[in-house]
Write a structure and sequence with these properties.
The structure is a homodimer.
Chain A lengths: L3 E5 L3 H13 L4 E5 L12 H5 L14 H8 L2 E3 L3 E6 L4 E6 L2 E6 L2 E4 L3 E3 L12 E3 L3 H14 L3 E5 L3 H11 L4 E5 L11 H13 L2 E4 L4 E7 L2 E7 L3 E3 L2 E4 L3 E3 L2 H5 L23 E3 L6 E2 L6 E2 L4 H15 L13 E5 L2 E7 L2 H6 L4 E9 L10 E9 L5 E8 L7 H9 L4 H6 L14 H9 L4
Parallel strand pairs in A: 1-2, 1-7, 2-3, 7-18, 9-16, 10-11, 10-16, 11-12
Antiparallel strand pairs in A: 4-5, 5-6, 8-17, 13-14, 14-15, 19-20, 21-22, 22-25, 23-24, 24-25
Helix pairs in contact in A: 1-8
């Protein structure tokens, strides 16, 4: 009899696993259950949908359930929620249209993703207050803007989603304020890099308030009217919460699967959980950090898709490990590009690594081009070995993706000397003769 | 007594060596002789000077002789030509203002660079026919354009300089034709990638003729009037030769220094020649190719500056090897970015490596952005091991510098599987969730 694989969760990780496995072994019978109305959509695009950069939600959907069935022979059921797992008997309970049924599996892939963190602030459930995770969130926010024409918005949280939402709200001309509880935006980067990001936000007309602790919301007629912080009361017709996510692992936890850091599901390098025939991928899963060697939780689409691919290979007869993650990430604030990979100096110290850092400013191309911009590069390296541990970049057009050079060097465990020796591309419209990444690395080369 | 270092040639390689050595060991007495009128200028910027992107030659000069003296304590003599070497007695003959003198050295650095290849075509020395190597070449071409207002130009040769000069001549509205002897432009890349580059040239209004063998030039009153090819006679008020360079190694050869590939000076990994106390760096020097392990000749500013730095370290007491080169290079043709690194499939075959290639087309960002462009990525990998051997990229804004990811992977001797596993940066304005480099690598991963 054909092997029956059930996927729980129809986003990038789960559907990548399904597609990869089915392509390699067409005999597999694969069924995916998704509790929401759509699968395989670009969650990272939601801010750009809100900001009118893209106008049709179907442009954000890589493949519909019908296409999965027709093109790949995979059954996808939306509006089907998996409510219980019976791992001992290899079955799961699925609810749809108010009724439930038990389904059996030979291999189970948990790809239930993450949910936005929403503190229990008074008034947080008022109308006009939104998280940004699902496509429906994006549709609701945009519809609200189009119908209600909010004049003022407050974005709570200065991480990726907060920055991207603030930028995209400005596309509507909405007066936008960003509140961050910490002393700097972008918590995965250093405060001095955060200052450059704040400059970019201010350049877009976003008011940024740091060290602002939200206490709750003023609500009238069911709608949010203002954000109360410890210091002030800020009028707001619209509030966007960008406070990060946590793994949606309650189902796995109830079934007895061991959880790890931040309650993410523990997996081995092959993405198997500790229970036979149960796999986990994507934002619900713990990862191995390639720099620290420690477990980490990084909810990013790149990681989810890579894990999905690896699980798909292994579900179809391979034994391919997933090497781990660096937390490489990028975004932009207007024309300013922001990227990071590996660990910061603070994280190095927390991991017990003796490290030092450098920060240089260079230019994105030779200075005589009219569109030259500054680029700031920060590198962290281990004292003694010179091994590169992490990097951060903020700069104009052409800056951000230079983080990939650092990420590749991190994966190869290169030293700063090896980065200086790299044969990177130079021409006047692209770089100085020493790439900014190498200019930074040079300052960390031990004196010989 | 202080050690006396003499540098022959005042461009990037020689002056990098001088600056690095002097910074580390201020007791060194360093003298540089340059036969031309300027030192330490950006030769790669000459096309952009001709094309009015930059208007002042002093913007192309990193440091003047006076600045070298004042800031670093290095003596730089322009218009001083080294005409003879007496390596046995550690001295060299310098000519200036018509007189010559012998100078002694403790360590000698040959950084005499390269000269443009100029075939002995009839009429090639006519006025209006230019090579593009020195800053004076650039000044002459631009002055000629400003004074004589040429209506038609022919660029001979479809390499980097040819492409860049064609683009920059179009900034003046000059009707420009590019002639290439081979069946494709950009000889360091594959013909199918060359086709994309021709499209970009045509988009700028450049007429491109391939397989055109130049036979000579029509000359009247001392000025070029037309280019004669085997097939046609092309009217031209201005002719630019972009036929590559060869090492300027005659001085070294006369002194008995062993030459290698293409008559470049042979050096060991520390950049020492085979004669004691004589070093060679930059465009006059042979390099070690990191992919083939064979000697190669690559005249690029990046290599020259890196070699200068390494020689400077070693002249001041270090023992640092220069690992070698990949031939990583980049340019642009209008908005089209062009880059390459490592070796092509043809070069792999010539080197006896069993290799295969892939070519994919992706997009520079998610498709809903109005400024999305196609990006074509070609990867070459060894059969069996899967080791990546080379890459080529042609695409819109944001494409070219992705070559650095491939170059870094090449330096680390990564396999295509390791490239697929890389944690590269993704956000909708920068990439698809799989970077185009990884999309290419995926197609080469052996079926598991």
């Amino acid at each position: 009899m054909s092997k029956r694989i059930v996927i729980v969760g129809g986003d990038g990780a789960g559907m990548s696993a399904a597609a990869q496995a089915k392509r390699r072994d067409p005999s597999l019978v694969i069924t995916a259950y998704e509790k929401g109305p759509v699968v395989s959509y670009s969650a990272c695009s939601i801010p750009y949908y809100v900001g009118k950069v893209v106008n049709q939600t179907d442009q954000l959907i890589a493949r519909t359930p019908e296409e999965f069935h027709r093109q790949l022979g995979i059954s996808v059921h939306t509006e089907h929620e998996v409510v219980d797992l019976d791992l001992h008997n290899q079955r799961l309970q699925v609810r749809s249209d108010g009724s439930t049924a038990w389904e059996s599996y030979d291999e189970l892939v948990l790809a239930t993703g993450a949910v936005p963190i929403v503190p229990s602030w008074p008034g947080v459930s008022a109308r006009g207050v939104y998280s940004v995770k699902s496509l429906e969130d994006g549709v609701s926010i945009r519809r609200d803007i189009e119908h209600r024409h909010p004049l003022t918005a407050v974005v709570v949280g200065g991480g990726y989603i907060g920055l991207e939402m603030a930028e995209n709200l400005r596309h509507w001309g909405i007066k936008t304020m960003l509140l961050e509880q910490k002393a700097a935006v972008m918590p995965t980067m250093d405060p001095d890099m955060g200052e450059l990001i704040v400059e970019a936000l201010v350049g877009l007309g976003v008011d940024v308030f740091l060290e602002e602790e939200v206490m709750g919301f003023d609500v009238a007629d069911g709608w949010v009217r203002a954000v109360q912080t410890r210091r002030r009361n800020v009028a707001a017709d619209l509030v966007i919460l960008g406070l990060g996510v946590r793994p949606q692992s309650a189902l796995a936890q109830r079934a007895g699967l061991p959880l790890g850091i931040k309650q993410a599901i523990k997996v081995d390098p092959y993405l198997r959980t500790e229970v036979a025939h149960v796999w986990a991928v994507g934002d619900v899963t713990e990862s191995h950090h390639l720099v620290t060697g420690q477990p980490t939780y990084i909810a990013l689409a790149t990681v989810a898709n890579k894990q999905g691919r690896i699980a798909g290979l292994n579900l179809s007869g391979s034994a391919t490990p997933f090497p781990g993650v660096l937390g490489t990430a990028i975004t932009r604030v207007g024309a300013t590009e922001v990227a990071r990979t590996g660990i910061t100096l603070t994280e190095a110290k927390e991991a017990g690594i003796d490290a030092k850092e450098t920060r240089i400013q260079a230019e994105t191309k030779l200075g005589y081009f009219s569109d030259v911009s500054p680029i700031t590069v920060k590198l962290v390296a281990e004292v003694g070995s010179g091994r590169v541990l992490g990097g951060q970049i903020v700069g104009g057009s052409g800056s951000g993706k230079r983080i990939d050079t650092i990420a590749t060097a991190l994966s190869a465990r290169m030293t700063v000397t090896q980065v200086v020796d790299l044969d990177l591309a130079y021409a006047p419209p692209f770089s100085d003769v020493w790439d900014p990444v190498q200019i930074a690395a040079r300052t960390l080369v031990p004196k010989l």
